Amino acid sequence: MNPVFIPGPTNIPDAIRKACDIATLDHRSPAFARMFRPAVDGVRRVLNMSGGEVIILPSTGTGGWEAAISNTLSAGDTVLAARFGMFSHRWIDLCQRHGLNVQIIETPWGEGAPLEAIAAALRADKAGKIKAVLATHNETATGVKSDIAGIRRAMAGHGALLFVDGVSSIGSMPFDMSGWGVDIAVAGSQKGFMLPAGLAILGVSDKALAAMDSATLPRTFFDFRDMLKSYAAGGYPYTPAVGLISGLAASIQMLEDEGLEAVYARHARLATGVRHAVAAWGMRPFAARPELYSDTVTAVQVPAGCNGTDLVKLAADKYGVAFGVGLGEVAGTVFRIGHLGMLTDVMMLAGLATAEMCMADLGWPVRLGSGVAAAQEFYRGSVALRAAA
Amino acid sequence: MNPVFIPGPTNIPDAIRKACDIATLDHRSPAFARMFRPAVDGVRRVLNMSGGEVIILPSTGTGGWEAAISNTLSAGDTVLAARFGMFSHRWIDLCQRHGLNVQIIETPWGEGAPLEAIAAALRADKAGKIKAVLATHNETATGVKSDIAGIRRAMAGHGALLFVDGVSSIGSMPFDMSGWGVDIAVAGSQKGFMLPAGLAILGVSDKALAAMDSATLPRTFFDFRDMLKSYAAGGYPYTPAVGLISGLAASIQMLEDEGLEAVYARHARLATGVRHAVAAWGMRPFAARPELYSDTVTAVQVPAGCNGTDLVKLAADKYGVAFGVGLGEVAGTVFRIGHLGMLTDVMMLAGLATAEMCMADLGWPVRLGSGVAAAQEFYRGSVALRAAA
Amino acid sequence: MNPVFIPGPTNIPDAIRKACDIATLDHRSPAFARMFRPAVDGVRRVLNMSGGEVIILPSTGTGGWEAAISNTLSAGDTVLAARFGMFSHRWIDLCQRHGLNVQIIETPWGEGAPLEAIAAALRADKAGKIKAVLATHNETATGVKSDIAGIRRAMAGHGALLFVDGVSSIGSMPFDMSGWGVDIAVAGSQKGFMLPAGLAILGVSDKALAAMDSATLPRTFFDFRDMLKSYAAGGYPYTPAVGLISGLAASIQMLEDEGLEAVYARHARLATGVRHAVAAWGMRPFAARPELYSDTVTAVQVPAGCNGTDLVKLAADKYGVAFGVGLGEVAGTVFRIGHLGMLTDVMMLAGLATAEMCMADLGWPVRLGSGVAAAQEFYRGSVALRAAA
Amino acid sequence: MNPVFIPGPTNIPDAIRKACDIATLDHRSPAFARMFRPAVDGVRRVLNMSGGEVIILPSTGTGGWEAAISNTLSAGDTVLAARFGMFSHRWIDLCQRHGLNVQIIETPWGEGAPLEAIAAALRADKAGKIKAVLATHNETATGVKSDIAGIRRAMAGHGALLFVDGVSSIGSMPFDMSGWGVDIAVAGSQKGFMLPAGLAILGVSDKALAAMDSATLPRTFFDFRDMLKSYAAGGYPYTPAVGLISGLAASIQMLEDEGLEAVYARHARLATGVRHAVAAWGMRPFAARPELYSDTVTAVQVPAGCNGTDLVKLAADKYGVAFGVGLGEVAGTVFRIGHLGMLTDVMMLAGLATAEMCMADLGWPVRLGSGVAAAQEFYRGSVALRAAA
Question: Binding of substrate: at which residues (chains A, B, C, D) (predicted)?
Fold first, then answer.
């Protein structure tokens, strides 16, 4: 009944719920192809792809990571990755479990991808052993966004592929696959696309596709080759998640009706308001510097002696509101406010007001209404007059 | 996307939307009867009826008023009614248009039904010309609740029927048809029952039913006799609104799962929080005295020089949030906050925060966050720990 | 799970269910006006109106009949009506209950409106006492359609209004309000418009509107004057059935996407297939002559010694399929197959196959598959290749 | 609008659509755990498991196959499998792509799993190199069911695991994981469970679980270990498909409300009726012998000179009805009628009637109504009186 304020899955708009909730359709029929094509084309526009292919798997972001590496790499291959949060950690772990040699750049949590260190590692790789660089565009655990264009610049002169986890950024924050030179971008249905979980959505560059045939990591469910062969015939190698694909087409329609730039601006506004509230509470985002602040999730550093997980638990139990706990090494020291997907200023204020009540309940040194007022002041000054809906 | 804060129609819970949204069912089949019976029985419990009959018309509250009089009265009959708001006015107007002689007790808006004046009028009616007393339980225009039990006491010794408009109270505020001696109670689907508009729901006492045969006001669509004859056979005299009846059964299930007393207590809490906010803004409810304060709607008196309608318009245009304007003689001098139906503390705070932003936008002398803080303080202190849902 | 084959309410397409199932919207907001206007304009096109006004009441067809007379007539006025089925009978009964003097032309059931007798009655009315002629376009009880254009011709030279019950024809069979000179056309949401019950939809000519002010039958809920005044401001005099109005806009979109002519042709095809099956069973429609055959419902005359109601009961109990029983004087001697609204050839064959199983179960002299085969032969020969949906 | 008659995805009942279509829920909250547990427990009952664990992956049947082998086997391991249709073929292909050594028993299509040959192969495997036997319970391509209990008997004395593809049988045909000694059973959401595609549902025996730690095939998305660790905490290692899990709980409720035995009996009845129709058309199922006939899908052998794919294409294009084409070596020589999931006799007759129209359109030597009549005769004689729904 209350909206959720977790960094995904996000609140699902009614129109998308209805687009997902459809009667059974023969997925081998032209009707399916007519539904699938606009979804694929729309993903291209959201990712800003030129060339390459879109792959949509009935899976999740984790499956998307696995598909990215298993279709392009072979056991023993080296990849380069920075670890600065739970999600960058998990992708590294996945690579290791699939027999890759991961050259890890340990980076303090709260920082983003370390461009210098990446550049240095690649310069040092005279033999060209590094086949791919893995980057987490938006580290959902710490609320940190990384500079993907900068990573590509840091890779200048090296032939490695660039794989980007955009699960919690794509559709909510600007993404420029073509301009940034991304080889595989991984998104999930349940974040910026405002759908239920159940789709891994990948943009794959021509260069990454060229690696398919030599890659020997075993895969069937995730095999791009089967996918592309079936897509060419308007279908799938196995039963697709038809409802979610219908919903994806609706999602893209909704994003483009609002305008992608307007969607990104709305997320920036929502996030800025949240950060005003955080400051009014006398706290700060966990992200090390303003230029790292994510526009989709804020990990709020809680005052000394306070425990962020207590707040999250109380919000759920007492007020029926979901926030995100701190994960891994920031467990307890942060709580996370998701501000992505279908959210309005008004909903956001409800979330902030709830967080404040929890703080007061827990005896944290925060004045009721203070964060709300700061966000109100920002929102009322920055909102555009709504067009007639 | 944002909840509405109008005094009805109210926000519809998902479970009720789903119960309304059903495939076509033969309304002459036993399946319909199986759905209809629990709805009828549930209404009896919500109204606290003993004896009498429940009548459910595919209509609205206005239709319910018309049905109440046309099934019990004849042209030229006298009824007694106090006028103290737009909805009491409209019922009076309806009676006049149907040829009744309405003895009107003009009462200042902001007041409730005047018990003394009613008692006096009945005492003066030695000839027993007054056939019915009309009472508006909750005057939606002014946020005033009246003392129905008191009206019945004021009627002591007089044989008139007591007809009560409970459209914006029933299902949200305590109602005791049997204990209060109400002869016809009129409810609508779109308020406390949390359904779409489309049903007039009436409780009719045995005494009121006894007037059916002598009443000569013309009616067919609203005729209780056709209804009761058809109900006895498990059906309707014409096509019923099957989906809404399915939804009504679900609504009653939901109200009773929460517990009617808990539902009423929740509304009282929501309303109290709103009134704390209003006080913090330096304003007051339009209702004349605290014992008249409605638990489903607050008409907020705006400061001198301010116009409540401006706030309502701005909230809709700029923030996508619906409040209610002042109607009739309080147009401009109040705006109305609906706090009935499916609402949580958290949603309520979003509404209050929005009202504050509008006040600031309009230059009203209100500090951002002030009302929110007052409501937060009240809500966090009074909420029961949510049971595991 | 199985479609219904009753002559309304009809099966509701998914797209219309979704359009009806919407979150609460402020009905006093411009958003409502934006939804209402296309619905009204669409009704004009379906009715083929020029001039006049569309009135949409949160009610049913019966309410539409009541609204038609109460807004245009006064107690004691004379109306002319033929009685040849249950629905023409009910409208007459309604008029009598509202104090009208109904000049009834008793006509054998199975016949349509008797043009000669109507002409004669009007010729005889030298004094012009007949204020309105009531006509049932499609008598749902007998499966008979009447010639409305013929009635208007029969009225030549007389000033009476022409009121038409098109509840079970409009949206499924051609209707030409302007060409036929209809003054009030009454439709319901739950037939050709494929919506749930809950809306009475009326087209009202300028001539009928002109009668509003002198008409003295009491009405408030149904009062056209309040409606038109509110419509002019984009609203309603009371709470409208917002979801159904949203659904009506979707219904008209769907009808016009298919094309009204194509919709009518589909109904004619469906009906013809049913009649082929009836003939193969050795039975005949109850309608007296082929030119009276309705394209929305067939009342099948059952063989001597058989009881149509038994079939309807068995179909519901054993096979979960709804047909219509015979009503009034044809109870038992017919059963009714509805073939209107969202139905395909394929669904129709399921209905016919079920009827056959019931006949066999009841020992009626019918060969299994015979009616199905006749309908199959007709359908497969007449279906247009489906356009890519 | 018309039901589908493909062998999955199946028609989704309204109640299941509604259970899937839910607002976003925090999947790390107790609310999710409360939804997940009944789904898991219900799957245990449907599979008739004792011990072991249920694994539910946001994936499809193909993913379920991959999960089965990657969690229990290592590259170079030998598995034994019979190939007698497209789906047994695909599982074999998957194993090979993951580096397994598949000992294939080539078996004529139309036959089931060859018990003698399996027994012989295992007897010959003195060294115990065969780690697992793969069996396709219901070969969806040929409409053949295999004797899983018999396979287990054929395995007597050999230590191999028994993995069963039950994607198109589980929930529609009796399955006895415990009694038959199945080690991994693979189901999908979109067949007998009547859900959209998007879940692979596995029952895993304790013996199979014991193989987890030594298995070295790489996996992360499909890793049982992560799943089981997270399940123990009421959660998932990544974002689950919450709506489908909610739907799965509803599906099991629906299956158990009808009664699993009744569900199986209904499928047997539906299938028998279809086979009566096939016989009346002068055709026969592709399955070699009656004891192999599947109760969920019939592959109909078309007459010489006819092409089954033409029928499927025509049914889709002309009548809007989906059947299944022949796959692989039976392309053209069969068409497939799915008769599983939410289907009634009445819907089945619509499918048979459509197939007949297509046959007539294509000039096949079939009399219209003949198959329908045969099925009608069977259905009407075998249906139980429907309990009051």
Answer: 336
> Predicted confidence band at D383 (pLDDT cuts at 50, 70, 90)?
confident
The chain B residue lying nearest A342, using CA atoms, is B1
Fold of A15-257: Aspartate Aminotransferase; domain 2 (3.40.640)
Phi, psi of D62, rounded to the nearest 5 degrees: -60, -40
User: Quick check: D230 and D6 in contact, CB under 8 A?
Assistant: no
Please name the fold of domain C260-382. Aspartate Aminotransferase, domain 1 (3.90.1150)
Answer for the pair D250, D193: CB distance below 8 angstroms, yes or no.
Answer: no
Reference C336, options C143, C165, C168; nearest CA is: C143
Q: What is the CA radius of gyration of chain C?
A: 21
| Amino acid symbol at C92 | I
CA gap D266, D278 in Å, rounded? 18
Closest CA to A2 of C97, D29, C346: D29
The whole model's pTM is what? Answer: 0.97
Alpha carbon distance B273, B271 (integer Å): 5
pLDDT at B387: 39
Are C151 and C115 contacting, i.e. CB atoms less than 8 angstroms apart? yes
Please give the full DSSP string across C290-310, using - where no structure is assigned: GGGB-SSEEEEEPPTT--HHH
Q: List the one residue out of C153, C207, C168, C152 whose CA is nearest residue C184.
A: C207
What is the domain partition of chain B in residue ranges?
Answer: 14-257, 260-382
B241 with C196: Cβ contact below 8 A: yes
Residue C345, both tokens? 């050839």
Shortest CA gap D157–chain A (Å): 32
Same fold, D14-257 and D260-382: no
CA atoms in the 13 A half-sphere facing the CB of D194? 26
Per residue in C142-165, pLDDT (tens digit) is 999 999 999 999 999 999 999 999
Cα→Cα distances B21→A1, A108, D248, D293, Å: 19, 52, 21, 39
- CATH code 3.40.640.10 for C14-257: yes
Distance of CA C184 to the CA centre of its chain: 14
- What's the token pair of residue B384? 């029961």
What does each of the 389 residues of chain A score in pLDDT, given as a tens digit? 899 999 999 999 999 999 999 999 999 999 999 999 999 999 999 999 999 999 999 999 999 999 999 999 999 999 999 999 999 999 999 999 999 999 999 999 999 999 999 999 999 999 999 999 999 999 999 999 999 999 999 999 999 999 999 999 999 999 999 999 999 999 999 999 999 999 999 999 999 999 999 999 999 999 999 999 999 999 999 999 999 999 999 999 999 999 999 999 999 999 999 999 999 999 999 999 999 999 999 999 999 999 999 999 999 999 999 999 999 999 999 999 999 999 999 999 999 999 999 999 999 999 999 999 999 999 999 986 444 33
D354, two tokens: 């459509």
Cβ of B318 within 8 Å of Cβ of A383? The answer is yes
CA distance to partner chain C, nearest, from residue B23 (Å): 7
Distance CA A340, CA A264 (A): 10
Q: Which of D317, D319, D380 sits opposite C345 (nearest CB)?
A: D319
Task: Give the closest of C345, C347, C353 to D376, CB-based.
Answer: C353
Between CA A195 and CA C18 the distance in angstroms is: 17
Question: Is B116 exposed, middle or buried, given 0-12, 13-18 or 19+ CB atoms closer than 10 A?
Answer: exposed
The DSSP code for C240 is -
Q: Is B99 on the interface with C (CB under 8 A)?
A: yes
Mean pLDDT over C324-340 rounds to: 98
What is the number of residues in chain A?
389
Name D12's Cβ contacts closer than 8 Å, sequence gap at least 6: A23, A24, D20, D194, D195, D196, D342
Q: Which of residues 131-170 of A touch D (CB under 8 A)?
A: none
